[in-house]
Design goal:
The chain contains six helices and five strands. With 156 residues, the protein is an alpha/beta fold. It has one domain (9-153): Sugar-phosphate isomerase, RpiB/LacA/LacB (Ribose 5-phosphate Isomerase B, Chain: A, 3-Layer(aba) Sandwich). Strands 2-1-3-5-4 form a five-stranded parallel beta sheet, sandwiched between helices. The longest helix is centred in the N-terminal third of the chain and has 13 residues, at 19-31. It starts with 8 loop residues before the first strand and ends with a helix. The relative contact order is 0.18.
Amino acid sequence: MQNNSHTLRVAVGADHGGFALKQTVLDEVRRLGHQPIDCGAAEYLAQDDYPDYAIAVGRAVAGGKADRGILICGSGVGVVVTANKVRGVRACLCHDTFSAGQGVNDDDMNVLALGARVIGPELAKLVVAAFLAARFRSDIGRYVRRLEKIKGLEST
């Protein structure tokens, strides 16, 4: 399970499509020994817009208020597209534990996206745990070199 020697601040946000899964994710973040930061929605709003929550989580991560972020919408696609527009965010849609861990280990992914209409709560908890347990392998030169190329795109 999770190594709690490194507590992470985790920004979590969801629109109406992900609202039902958001509490499960917040509870799992807390259970794993991390500090959740709820970026909304605070209540179910059938007409809310996923970019609002993706921007809030993205800015929390990019601005240093959170170490990682988790976004949830119906498919997960919209929040990924939006979050990746925030400089410094590397968001990926993952519905399996391998991708969630490998995305951090090799690619320094800092925001996980989930599709609430795609993934169930039990698998979501496992994916969140894999994401939060992983650490970027900054001691491996090729991963650092690739990350620097990605970061270079943000200044073009």
